[in-house]
Amino acid sequence: MKNLFLTLAMTVGALGAGVTSAHADIYTLTATLSGNEETPAPGLNTGAFGSATITLDTTARTVTYRVDVFNLPSGVTASHIHVGAPGTAGPVIINFAPPVNASNDFAYAGTVPEAQWVLRADQGIRSGEDIIQAILGNNTYVNVHSTVNAGGEVRGRLVLKQD
Q: How many CB atoms lie within 10 A of CB 95?
């Protein structure tokens, strides 16, 4: 009986060791968008503001985004994630699809697969893995550009959301 119990315990243990989790690595990051985050310092005096939420799925290799903008005085021309430290103007690494020429209050959302991410070898972004590291390493920001402020109307640093 003791041998049967030992054999059963070892079998269950072996089966349990072979089971892997179907866990995906999904991270949510947020940014508060304002003109005072724009460069050069001290930023931009604008009534526009907003928020951005991105979900980074490292298994599916996608970035899903939602951006809400309020009081934008002129039409939106572009929006994206840039890589770069606070107070610097960094290059684009992930493009969003905003409703071009929308102004005042609006929102947009979408999903960008890794095949559409923009590599920047001169900034050390040579692969999708480098982009993931930059996003999770607090080295990225969301920027919304407008017809009046082509360099950016509102921007905010992406910060990992704590559960």
A: 15
Vertex 36: Cα angle to 33 and 37 (nearest 5): 60
Cα separation of 105 and 49, whole Å?
Answer: 10
Residue that is written with structure tokens 């050390």 in the block: 124
Summarize pLDDT for 118-137 with one digit per residue, the tens: 999 998 999 999 999 999 99
Helices (H), 19-92: none
- The Cα 48–Cα 130 span in angstroms is 31
Q: What is d(CA 98, CA 39) in angstroms, rounded to the nearest whole number?
A: 21
Per CATH, the architecture of 24-160 is what? Sandwich (2.60)
Q: pTM for this structure?
A: 0.84
Residue 15 pLDDT exceeds 80:
no
User: 112: burial class by Cβ within 10 Å (0-12, 13-18, 19+)?
Assistant: buried
Task: Domain ranges for the chain, please list them.
Answer: 24-160
